[in-house]
Amino acid sequence: MKIKKINSFLILITLLCMFVTSLLTPATAFAEVPYKTYTHDASDGNYNVIETQAAYIPSRSITKIGETSFAWARDMHITKDGYIYIADTGNRRILVSDLQGNYITEFGSGVLMTPSGVFVTEDNMVYVADRDAKKIIVFNNKGELIKEYGKPNHPLYGDEVDFLPIKITVNHAGNMFVICESNTNGIVQISPAEGGTFLGYYGTNPTSISLVDIIIRMFMTDAQRAKMIMNRPPTPDNLAIDEKGLIYTVTRGQRYETLRRLNIAGKNIMEADDYDETPVAVTPGNYNNVYMVSSQGYVYEFNNEGNLLFVFGGRDDGRQRIGLSKKVEAVGVDGGDLIYLLDSDMNQIQVFEPTEFTDLLHEALYLYSKGRYTESKKPLEQILRMNSLFGYANKAMGLAYLQEENYDMALHYSKLAADRVTYSDAFWEKRNEWIRDNLIITFIMIVVLVTILKIFKHLHKKKGIFNRINNFISIIKSRLIVTRLRYALYFMKHPIDGSYGVRWEGMTSYFSANIIISIFIIFNIINKYFTSFLFKTVREGRYNLFSDIGSVLTIFIVLTACNYLVCTINDGEGSFKQIYCSFAYCLTPYIVIQPVVFIISKVVTLNESFLVTFSEQLILAWVLVLIFIAIKEVNNITVKETVKVIVLTLFAALIFALLVFIIYVLWQQVFDFITAIGGEAVYRLGF
Amino acid sequence: MASNRRIPIKRIIVSSVFIVFFAVVLIAIASFSKTPNGQNNGGPHGPQGFDNSLLPKSNIDKYVDKLIAENDNYKMYLTASNLSVSIEDKRNGSLIHTTVKEDREGINKQWVGFIKSGIVLNVIDGYNEAVQADLINNTNLIEITEINNGFKADITFLDYGFRLSMNVTLVGDEMLVEIPDESIKESRDKYHIGAINVFPMMGHSYLGEKEGYMFIPDGNGALIYLNDKEGRLTGGYSQMVYGEDIGFKDQSTQSLLWERHQTVNEAEYVLAPVFGMVHTSDIGYLGIIEGGAERASIEAYPNGVKIPYNRIYPKFVLRRTFKQPTSNSSSGVVDDIEEDRIHYNIKVRYKFVDGNNANYVGLALSFRDYLIEEFHLHKDDSTYNTRIDFIGTEREEWLFSTRNVTMTTIQNIRDIYADLEEEGITDILSIYKGWQKGGINKVPIEKYKTDRNIGKTKDLTRLIKDINESGRKLYLYHDLLRINPDEFNTTFNVVKRIDKRLFEEPTYMQVYEDMLYLIPKRSNYYFEKLVDDYSRAGISDLAIGGITSSIFTFSYSGSEYSRGYTRDAYESMLSKSDDKFGYLLEQPFAYLWKYTDAFLDLPIGTSQYNFVDEEIPFLAISLKGLMPLYSEYMNFEANKEEFFLKLIEMGVYPSFLITWENSSKLIYTNSADIYSSEYSIYKDDIIRYTTALKEVNDSVQGAYIIDHEKLDSGLTIVTYDNGTKIYVNYGNETQPIDGYTVEAMSYKVGESK
């Protein structure tokens, strides 16, 4: 414990020193950086990507190690004591330099064939993954060959599987984690015991299979299925290890989970805010943070929880600007938070230097990770002064205030950061306070209200003081349209009787049905955009009302029409009007219950969120039951027929959608053709 | 049966004789029919088949390194066969050659032609642009006429049927090169002149043989050293003067982050048509493009890019090819070429600097003299000001439409002014953006009417009057270029590219996704309407953006308009009411400098090209004292301390973008990139910067910079003509100098001794 304390104290001291020196050290080039830097404004899925100050600026590039240049270097490792080990793949050797690019040593010539992965342990053993030599080769830091590991001789490894190591990392125990080309089983884990013992495959990626794939497969013959590309999980493309021995992997070719942090069991324990489809390398930072780079040259920095702190950089595309990349292969971070990007196309290592802004952020990250929330508030405040929308800073501020039991501020910041968990916790505390303070007053008010009501009722009975109002109400109630609307309540509770009324007694009209649909749409919109922050599913500040209304109407009309058509050929007796009206009336539970849910949503926290979800499910179930009964009763058919009608209706709707799609595509072609002729005319005649 | 049948040998002989005869006849006919056009056979790539006796007589043999002009300081020599001009400085004997004299191995024929010719044309053969016409590989006819102080060369490229004349004169310390438009002739349908490279090797050097640098007008100014690059570089600088031409912009080829974000900052535009070459302490020149700048690009390539020579030159584009889409999908595209070449007189002025002036400061001072003489700029920088710009209102999405987001009201501005005055800060200049009805993105502004959320129009008029009375200025901002297609009908009067497709400028934001450009005539229409409104309201200060930093080729209702047309239209628009109004122009191009009261958004750095070796404050040295210079907004700088020192070094005044409300209110608007702007956050910075910078600038107010020196220790010394010296220390150690000590990341104002 004591050692730990001293350690963290030392880290803090070095950190402060770094912070001070970084303020003093000027960048060699001025900060009109060729790329923009982005971050997120929120930590949940509904974030907005926002621009921010340059987080890192390109400071210099290492094109040569002393007088030696490197070619097609595929990997690089930066050690704690400040050395860069470069897998100089093109020249079949390992190059060692200091952080300035001064030549230290080189080795491996004559032994190495295609060194494409390099890792250096804390005791300065250099592990090289050599693909064409099909070996892991271990050197000491003087360049003497210590050991070699070939293909594991183990039945579980697989006899037909070749051993083509391309990337390697080694944990404290000396166990090697090797990524092999064309080995889809996962990361090969080898222990150094007995000249290399195969421990098994590690951290296999989950297979991704979509619903569409499953459906397509259902209709395929065996031969076709065999022809299809094997649905093997993609293997990671690169990996890194942090101080705690947790392995980070990056995998290309997927949309999600391309960056993973694996626990000892090989399970992913980090969910990042954002992923890149072509990540090539990953490295842990100095503050439990992690850096990931894509081959396009984008550098991502995440915190411990996978919140995106920064993304910056980009592709050169012939622009020839410092800091843009052509083909990134590896990334490294030194003790001063400088980022090193190895670019095999430009044959250089580009060095990026953190700005004042990033130093503040790292200070906050450090304090925060040590649980010193209150202290972390100071740098966080400065960050927010420089960028009031910085998602991570707002989130951390929210948590800091929650720790300090300042719930108002916690609510403010966690809402800015869309941090629902913190918000919910703060809200819970806030609500408790309110209840504590207002319980008695509320109770008294209820008693007073009840008494007043009682008194009025009594007076009314005796003197009829509300007669005029009652008359007015009954006049309104007697209006036809009002009766018809009130019938919805009856329909909701007595669907069988209700359907009879719809069919035979003319209890509904197009007008009343349309009113109900309109109310449904309005409630739907209100619920979507104005529900409590905790339950809102759409992104703040985005409105798509036309499509909201359009989709409800389209679905409603298409389903009604299809149902009508299907019913008519299935001896259904209902007219279009009757089906239309009964369907509209089936929406009544939503109209009646949803407002209550809406109000409840404003006062519940995530702990009681089942209240909201349960009510919503209840509404859905109720509506579905009503629809079923309505179809059955209005058309006067049996239960079996009803099921058939429903299935057919859905099928008809599907066909209809397909038809619209085909017409759309055809029309698109015609439109393209016309514009092409127009384009030709413009070109030939030169308008 | 058939296989056994034998063909008589006689018959075989007869038919072969017949075949041979027939072939001979065919060849004869072919060769006869060719003979009358024999001259065309030479082809573009060689003189073979060309009969020299058919050419008119040329007088080039008389001119081989012949002295052709001379004055007190310089001599000019001419070798006519390849139009090689050499300038000799009589004081120290140093030379500048316009072509490579020596022969070197390993350079291919086309490049030899390039480096040994005084003029090189890019030829468009059909739609192929990769053809070169030079004076070595192509047959040509050169006729020299000696004129006062120089010569006139009439050049005919016989292979392609081009003619042009070039006048070169030596006047004082300047060499003037002109190619009059009417002298340029194209006589064959197949070949067009794409571009003219004027003296492409002027002042060149081989690998690292000379000490010195090339000066490129990127950002504030940048240098490429003449040292040996060891083949590391694959490209060089090639930028159109006055920015890229959106009329030719291909909008499809960009790699975006998450397919949505344009992550690369655009390269800085070339604000002034200048370039330079310096052989340190020996000789150097500043090239100024006087004619045709709007269609010229500045090309600078360090050694190792194709050939081992450092070279910088202007390239005048007469015609461009482009892709004409014929359908909406990307497949339908045909090549096309500009119908007519763009007409303008090419004119380049080379101002020589020598001896101790042969450095970038010499170039910048020479440019300042030029600005004073030719642009009629004069000393006009009497007071220090901090620029504080305000944003009025923005719009965010709301239900079916958009709703207002108020950031800074008229009353807020009054409060901010009063608050700062209490702190003793009165040196303020302000621009009010987004004051108009509908917010900052409701452009163009049609009349003088405020958004009701910031206050009434008459309140704004009163505010401006009050501020003017206290000796300060508030400018109303106008983007005269853009039109918002979601707020206005944009069927007519908007810019279409050369391929007749609508030009759309993506905003990468969610409320308004694209902006369109107004044609100059329409900009003028709106501007004149406003001018009337303002005259009536008694407002005389306008800040103008958009048109000040963009000129373009466009097509409109069947006609094509050149960049020159756009430039002239904008200039006449501003000059018409120049006497009535004071303008603040946003990052103006050089041709507008005489109309602006101050330079807004002066770039402090450069685009950070990988071939640039040093960044220099070229524009700052030239312009300091001629007009107040204002930086880009401080808000978005990550390294504020360093930025502050840069401002001190360059004599540039700081700018802030301020809102009364917190910037988080802008998150759902098109101004979401403004992530920090709240007044209460920046108040302390404003006070600190103003106090410090005012003190520095008071000591140099109205003075010119006469020297700028960077020491290896990280110390920069700027000397003004009133004797003040400013020391800026970017290093991390305290530096003693001239009896002062300058602390790390700090500055000192001293007297020169």
Describe this structure in words.
The complex is a heterodimer of chains A (687) and B (753). Chain A has 687 residues and is an alpha+beta fold. Chain A has a domain at 478-667. Chain A is built from 17 helices and 25 strands. The longest helix of chain A has 48 residues, at 639-686. Chain A is globular, with a radius of gyration of 34 Å. Chain B is an alpha+beta fold. Helices cover 19% and strands 32% of the residues of chain B. In chain B, strands 7, 8, 9, 10, 11, 14, 15, 17, 18, 23 and 37 form an 11-stranded antiparallel beta sheet that branches. In chain B, strands 36-35-32-28-27-24-39-38 form an 8-stranded parallel beta sheet. Chain B starts with 8 loop residues before the first helix and ends with a strand. Residues 32-54 of chain B have low confidence and may be disordered. Chains A and B meet through helix 1, strand 2, strand 3, strand 22 and helix 4 of A and strand 25 and helix 9 of B.
